[in-house]
Amino acid sequence: MTRPISVLIDQNALRHNLGIFRQRAPHSQIMAVVKANAYGHGIGSVLPALGGADALAVACLEEALQLRQLGWRKPILLLEGIFEPREIADCIAHNLSVVVHHQEQVQMLLAARLTAPLPVFVKLNSGMNRLGFNPNEYHHAIASLRTQPMLAGITQISHFATADEAAGISAQLQVIDRHFADHPYPVSLANSAALLRYSETHRQWVRPGIALYGASPFSDISAASLQLKPVMHLQSRIIAIQNLQPGQAVGYGMSWVANHPTRVGIVACGYADGYPRHAGTGTPIQVNGQRTRTLGRVSMDMLCADLSEIPLAQVGSPVTLWGEAVPVDTVAQAAGTIGYELLCARAQRVPEILLE
Ligand SMILES: *Cc1c(COP(=O)(O)O)cnc(C)c1O
With a threshold of 0.90, does the pTM exceed it? Predict the structure, then answer.
């Protein structure tokens, strides 16, 4: 038997989540965000379930080329645009769209000899202060791009900093509406949080990422209550059992000490698989279909589960680290982070198994 850890990728869950976005934003086109190897799911594993999306978005040219190689024919947007002029030829050859967020990118594009149209998403910095033209530069950038007919396919784009928080979007949306109204072009604003919470942001294109994979963008609303289904199930098995007597400890640092006789299951999953080391004793985990808790420190290849209430568990019993019964968001919360980080950190050594 080979090491029993894997991620199950549930393609039907992905299709279901796409369906939720269609219901919520019936008049918008859906650009599914698949950067970072589809948030750690494996781009090849999710692509067959993304046929219902209208476009895909990635962070760089290499990710886009991989999608073309896998046969995706609809639009692909480079969310950070180009980094150097020599990427432009590939963008043209593979029919990619690019975000333009900085004056240097405008100059690169205007200096290039474009042999075919290159669709551009011109980005307004509406308050997040990460990427985008400030309002006073934005109109000038659009005017410059319009001088080159090959760059005339323009979409207006901006991004919210607090669509998932109490602060909301209204301050940014005011800036956006004030400046976007000057131009006749289509608009794209909504990440998952805005898509699910603010229908006024839907416009022509929505850009869901995390919710596509069935995790919640909100710290206080569960994915299940948003009707989202988890796409990734991190699963493994018990590979050893220890019976601890009171006073005995388990794992590095001996940080968890039994105060009554305790059956401990050793699970083949550790931080080198992408499980967060910061998740301390008490993090939820499922063994043999029953929910229990982790004990002690997570090590590189293993962690420990409390089997006190699961007498039937034995070597070989199935374990779910996250998935349906244990939302990735709960594990993330226990580790002081967000579901995004755990999904993206799924290690290469954990093989993907497709559930079609
Ligand atoms: C990553 C990203 C998204 C998707 O965000 P989620 O919170 O995962 O839905 C949307 N737009 C841009 C510009 C992004 O970088």
Answer: yes
